[in-house]
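Reviewers of the previous submission asked for a worked example of the structure-prediction workflow described in the proposal, so we include one complete record here. The input consisted solely of the amino acid sequence. No template or homolog information was supplied to the procedure at any stage.
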Amino acid sequence: MVVLNKIYTKTGDKGQTALGNGDRVAKHSLRVNSYGTVDELNATVGLARLHAPGDMDTQLSMIQNDLFDLGADLCRPDMEKDAEAEYPVLRMTEAQVERLEADLDAMTQAVEPLRSFILPGGSALAAHLHLCRTVARRAERLAVELASAEAVNPSAVTYLNRLSDWFFQASRIANDDGKNDVLWVPGANR
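From that input alone, the workflow returned the following structure tokens.
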């Protein structure tokens, strides 16, 4: 359990922060940007939950917890040294990815196939879920970029990829199973 006796530490006043293994890096590093964007995504999920009914709220709550797991994973470099850590290192698992895939399969069965691109909008919940989708895509891009330079848990990247798809399908569910989706009309305002 985490215990925070004081919120500010002054250790980051000169533009550095500590990673999960204790290493200090610049706050603008790619790794910090990656898990910082996951934190931003978690905040957008919190906004979506304000509009989510029971089952959707439960699923979003699980995703928020997963996103903290994901941030913990991304803030800890040196995967090959996990066994040497003082305490068990938290890493994303394939089971978390598989849960999203099962949710996606169920949501896909509930909606009509797409015949047009969808504009972000419709219900308030759908609009918030589209925002979650775009932040998830940015987090994924950053994690992929990080993985091209340093070791990153592949399940972390896969989770982000599935998660953005999850938010897309969830937005369709929030729009009365896609019946109230706002469709793109190419060239409509020419």
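The chain is about 55% helix and 5% strand. We consider this example representative of the routine output the project will generate in years two and three.
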